[in-house]
Amino acid sequence: MKRSRKRKPTILVYAIALLTISLTAYTFCAIYLKQYNNDLAVTIQEKESEIKSLSTQKEALQVEIDKLATKTKVVDAIDSEDMSVNKDNIVYINGSEE
Questions:
Q1: Residues 73, 65: Cα–Cα separation, whole Å
Q2: How far apart are CA 76 and CA 68, in angstroms?
Q3: CA dist 21 to 11, 16, 26, Å?
Q4: What are the tens digits of pLDDT across the range 58-73?
Q5: Spacing of C-alpha 33 from chain mean position
Q6: pTM of the predicted model over 0.70
Q7: How much of the chain, in percent, has pLDDT values that exceed 90?
Q8: 3-state helix, strand, coil in the chain (%, to 5)
Q9: Handedness of CA 63, 69, 75, 80 (dihedral sign)
């Protein structure tokens, strides 16, 4: 009976094993990072859309505030209620008088 002698793994075997593990890890990381990048891009687009929407709402509210804060609006309200105007009692928050 011949005894088969176990061969010790050489550096080539270790190199091939390390290469295989490295390629597998690289593949998984590349796929994960690509998906993560896509998710970030979608989130950025959603936030930009939300910013545009809120900006439009802000502009509309500013127009509404400007419309309601005019002196003519106060005078029209006074005229419609048949009251007299005492200009000393009318205070403008933004400091502008028309």
A1: 11
A2: 11
A3: 15, 9, 9
A4: 999 988 887 777 767 7
A5: 20
A6: no
A7: 50
A8: 70, 0, 30
A9: positive
52 burial type by CB count under 10 A (0-12 exposed, 13-18 middle, 19+ buried):
exposed
Can you spell out the DSSP letters for 49-86?
HHHHHHHHHHHHHHHHHHHHTSHHHHHHHHHHTT----
- For the stretch 89-98, contacts whose Cβ atoms lie closer than 8 Å and that sit 24 or more positions apart, written own/partner, are 93/69, 94/69, 97/71, 98/70, 98/71, 98/72
Residue type at position 74 = V
Give the tens place of pLDDT for each residue, 26-58. Answer: 999 999 999 999 999 999 999 999 999 999 999
Sequence length of the chain is 98
